[in-house]
Amino acid sequence: MSIGVVIVTYNRIEKLKIALKSFEKQTLLPSYIVVVNNASTDKTVDFLKVWKEKETSFSKYVINLSENLGGSGGFYTGLKYAQTLNSDWIWVSDDDAFPDKDALKNAKRFLNKKYSAVCGAVINNGKIDLNHRRKLNFKWCKVISKDIPKKAYSQQKFELDSFSYVGTIINKQKLRMIGLPRKGYFIWMDDTEHSLRLRTVGKIICVPSVKIYHNTGKEQGVSWKTYYGIRNEADMYRRNLPKRYFLYFCYFGLLKVKINNLLGRHKQFNVLAKKAYIDALHGKQGLDSTYKPGWKSAEYKK
Question: What is the model's pTM?
Fold first, then answer.
């Protein structure tokens, strides 16, 4: 049950250094590390060139993309390449996720062919970040997504329905069965959508003794990411659930936008959300020409 690692990075060289060092200090070393550089404009290329040349007991691979494909495109590229390498399981995480030194050793005890994925506990600011591991409930045409309760993390393991790509180990055999992430999502919901497919071929479990320290802040207000979150969630329903879930999500969302407009509130959010729902109805994917990385509105707070 060997474990390989795929890390996606973009313009966060200092965090990337910490992430790589975290894997190099594991009590159980990975078989390999694949770093997908999403066309970073800082000194990431130079750093990775030097990093790759340093001799280690595991293999190193660097993929420098010619354009920023977002997290979705990055994980698609990394997982596609990792399928050609020698490992039974593939750990995926961003460059701001730092595994505890015993993470791989603790995870290995629970790797079982019947599972499609094994996750760890995400720690943010010293506390378990419950948002990264979730249970899903499907009612009529609504999807109820709930955090796993904190008390569940006192167990040796527990089952869940969806995960984030922050310290998740995917069974390579199951990955080949259900396919790669949706690279057209660009960012957000790619991991959740992937979870829905993986859970059809095997259970997804969380092992709390596998700890990942997530160095990130909270999203504030409405940004370019909000557009992709709405658009991609709709597409996730369209691809994985009965059609009524997709139609309800889009048309109920458009109705809320119309009501907001009539009440004269959240103008920029309304424009963004309307476009996201309509783009989803038309099956649009990829990077949007308006909502590119960096766009932000302070007008509306979720």
Answer: 0.95
